[in-house]
Amino acid sequence: MDMDFSTSGKELDPRNPDSRIQRALGLTCGAFSFIERKDDEEVYKDGRKQKYKEGEDTSKDWICLRSKANGEPCEERNFPRNEKCFRCGGLRQSNAPLVRDYKSNKKIDGRKM
User: Fold this and answer.
1) Bridging pattern class, strands 62-63 and 77-78
2) Residue 112 phi/psi, 5° resolution?
């Protein structure tokens, strides 16, 4: 085995995206470069269009009902993984309504549900 085997990859510039990919794949012991294709940008844009074509899935988001100082509920929409409201810091209640079940005529955080 080569004596320099354990030190290979140290000369790679950590700011270079190609070197990051090479390290992640364990390809640090040689000269590699990723070839850019003419349609890379087009493929990327098509993928993004497809992803956002369906829109954001808010069906599992929950609504914070913690009261503000003026007595009105916070009514902020929160991601399902959050246990606290990102706006007021209130803990998620066990009976917190989901966006799909919320029957308010108001817009939640500026958007109609």
Assistant:
1) antiparallel
2) -80, 135
* Residue-wise pLDDT tens digits, 15-60: 777 777 777 777 766 666 667 778 888 888 888 887 777 777 888 9
Which H helix or E strand runs over 108?
none
Amino acid in position 84: K
Measured in degrees and rounded to the nearest 5, phi and psi for residue 19 equal -70, -30
Sequence length of the chain is: 113
Q: Is 38 exposed, middle or buried (0-12, 13-18, 19+ CB in 10 A)?
A: exposed
Residues of the chain above pLDDT 90, percent: 23
- What pTM value is reported for the model? 0.48
Q: What is the DSSP string of 32-82?
A: --PPPPTTHHHHHHHHHHHHHHS----TT-EE---B-TTS-B---EE-TT-
- Read off the DSSP letter of residue 97: P
